[in-house]
Write a structure and sequence with these properties.
The radius of gyration is 21 Å and the shape is elongated. 70% of the residues lie in helices and 0% in strands. The longest helix has 14 residues, at 66-79. It is built from 14 helices and no strands. By secondary structure, it is mostly helical.
Amino acid sequence: MRNILLSISLLLSLSAFSQQKEEGVSVSSPEQNSANQETVIDDPYAGLTIEQRFEKAAEYMDDSKWQAAKDIYSNILRLSPSSYRALYFRAYANERMYHYGLARADYDELLRTDPENFHALSGRAILNQKDSHFTEALDDANLLVEQYPDSINAWVIRANIEEQLGHLALAEFDYMQAYQLDSSKKDYILQAIDLQLKQKKKEDAKRNLDRLVKAGVPKNSLKYYYKRINLRNP
């Protein structure tokens, strides 16, 4: 569930990405990019500009009409094969329909032309985690942290993968890094505290809980964690 929520939050945070100028990129030919994935041959959106097509696709995405949105993004790629936005959001639509192979192909294509694209790296890392390609997921997450050390999402994505793999100490470290980047994000330090308790690092957990109380978090709201400190198996 956390992966799904994370990928949605990443999608909703892409306003800057969605408005950026797309230039200087050739994402292969229209035939290679779109014809194989588009379910309609004729152009049913002939009266719409490219931007209006994006707006229509966004409406479908908001309504979870993934196939309809994907068809528009494929249509845009047929007309404008250098569109970062269309390629990224088609990958996302494919992912939501569990078409993981198609989604991965779109992320791969985008990263072929722009190897450091944050959104594509993030999307592929989350996709690979969902599809149990954990080695590839961790490789992408490591690249994210290396290339974007000031990004909270980069640390959280890697922490989530590490936690699922049972690398609790590594995940704890990454959640703490995310919290240090933005101390208003209390969920991240609570996630680290949870992992500390699972590792029986009770002193570390209590220190961080007390830290939250000093920062103004009501102690009563943390009683679940404080109680676990006194358990033999927290």
